[in-house]
């Protein structure tokens, strides 16, 4: 018996309502982002591995444990993208767009990480993200967050989320805080998980992200970042909060919300929900003024976010506003040509029309109901001889005889 083929573990086929939800999220976000001046960009789904090692960092779990990396036939090491920002910044540099600042770019597509599949977390998943490059003003952070708010509201999901926000300060503040964490965690080194012991040397801020129960018990008393912020960092964050207040965007301060990579600075934020279990973050972002220069480009401020399409799709209700088709039912081969011409005329006018190609009248009407058709247009030999068509309302069951030459106008009305 032949093996039953299935999608690879951690992936899914998008069909029917699943596909419609994904498309609805993308179309909604792109429409609203255009109002904010964003332009679409698409980058390859695989990049040179160095693009991600240089940006995400070789000490991160993504690079160390989760990336799909392979060597192609030419001996080049390539990686399926685990996130979108690095590829967008690479594209900006590669295409000489650093001379066109400021830039507002929006992207979407599949990302890939090898991790244990669970609700809202897959090995191939889809993200939509925005990157605003070339502006250092704190109100750009506010604007970027406000874009996320408008998208979530348009999807009807804003009330299911909470905006959590924090400042991770400028470079000077981060260096001071880093040393404070090293001083705090060093006496507990033997009690930390192996991952956190490694992070203590390489990137102590990432210990705060640990999900290990033993680590979390130690983290509770760790120094607060707030105590190590300089005046520049405090003022920047105060302006961001003032901008959110001005727009009446509610938010919650989360002092444990950090970004472990060195190119992140100032604002960090997440929209989280309690309706998806452990995978509660549906949109996350922050400021990354050091990323462009780390990738070989000029010093360029940047801020952006990415949303998880699968996670938002899980929160969406079934989409019920799909256009209902018109079922065209030829009764016998003689009427087929006229039915086909009518269907094409309806489609050219922007209507959704479906032709029933086979089966008796009963089966063809069952198909019409299955595709949720609003009306069925039936033409058989007798109708053709009289140049008439039977139009049946599939909701009420009422039917009417109309001249074939008037069917298009009748349906249009």
TrEMBL record:
Under the heading Pfam families, the entry gives: HGTP_anticodon, tRNA-synt_His
Q: Which reaction does it catalyse?
A: tRNA(His) + L-histidine + ATP = L-histidyl-tRNA(His) + AMP + diphosphate + H(+)
Which residues does the UniProt record annotate as the domain Aminoacyl-transfer RNA synthetases class-II family profile? 1-330
UniProt-listed InterPro entries: aa-tRNA-synth_II, aa-tRNA-synth_II/BPL/LPL, Anticodon-bd, Anticodon-bd_dom_sf, His-tRNA-ligase, HisRS-like_core, HisRS/HisZ, HisRS_anticodon
Residues the record lists as binding L-histidine: 83-85, 113, 127, 131, 259, 263-264
> Is-annotated flag, keyword Protein biosynthesis?
yes
Q: Which domain of life is it from?
A: Bacteria
Localization annotation: Cytoplasm
HAMAP family linked? His_tRNA_synth
The name of this protein is Histidine--tRNA ligase
Name the gene for this chain. hisS
């Amino acid at each position: 018996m032949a093996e039953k083929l299935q999608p690879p573990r951690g992936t899914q086929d998008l069909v029917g309502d699943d596909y419609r939800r994904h498309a609805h999220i993308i179309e909604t976000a792109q429409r609203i982002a255009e109002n904010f001046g964003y332009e679409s960009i698409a980058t390859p789904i695989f990049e040179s591995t160095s693009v991600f090692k240089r940006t995400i960092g070789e000490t991160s779990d993504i690079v160390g444990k989760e990336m799909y990396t392979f060597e192609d036939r030419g001996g080049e090491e390539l990686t399926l993208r685990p996130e979108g920002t690095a590829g967008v910044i690479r594209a900006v540099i590669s295409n000489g767009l650093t001379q066109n600042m400021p830039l507002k770019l929006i992207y979407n597509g599949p990302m890939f990480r090898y991790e244990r599949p669970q609700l809202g977390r897959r090995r191939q998943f889809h993200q939509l993200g925005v990157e605003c490059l070339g502006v250092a003003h704190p109100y750009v952070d506010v604007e970027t967050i406000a874009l996320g708010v408008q998208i979530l509201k348009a999807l009807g999901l804003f009330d299911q989320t909470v905006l959590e926000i924090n400042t991770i300060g400028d470079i000077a503040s981060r260096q001071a805080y880093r040393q404070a964490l090293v001083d705090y965690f060093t006496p507990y080194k033997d009690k930390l998980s192996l991952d956190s012991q490694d992070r203590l040397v390489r990137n102590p801020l990432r210990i705060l992200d640990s999900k290990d129960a033993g680590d979390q018990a130690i983290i509770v008393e760790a120094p607060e970042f707030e105590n190590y912020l300089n005046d520049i960092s405090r003022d920047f964050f105060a302006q961001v909060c003032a901008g959110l207040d001005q727009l009446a965007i509610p938010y919650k301060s989360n002092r444990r919300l950090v970004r472990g990579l060195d190119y992140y600075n100032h604002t960090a934020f997440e929209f989280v929900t309690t309706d998806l279990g452990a995978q509660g973050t549906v949109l996350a972002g922050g400021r990354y003024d050091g990323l462009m220069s780390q990738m070989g480009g000029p010093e360029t401020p940047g801020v952006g976010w990415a949303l998880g399409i699968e996670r938002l799709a899980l929160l969406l209700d079934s989409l019920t506003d799909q256009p209902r088709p018109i079922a065209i039912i030829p009764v016998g081969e003689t009427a087929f040509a006229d039915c086909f011409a009518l269907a094409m005329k309806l489609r050219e006018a922007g209507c959704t029309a479906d032709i029933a190609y086979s089966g008796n009248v009963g089966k063809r009407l069952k198909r019409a109901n299955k595709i949720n058709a609003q009306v069925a247009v039936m033409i058989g030999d007798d109708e053709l001889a009289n140049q008439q068509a039977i139009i049946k309302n599939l909701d009420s069951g009422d039917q009417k005889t109309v001249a074939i030459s008037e069917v298009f106008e009748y349906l249009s009305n």
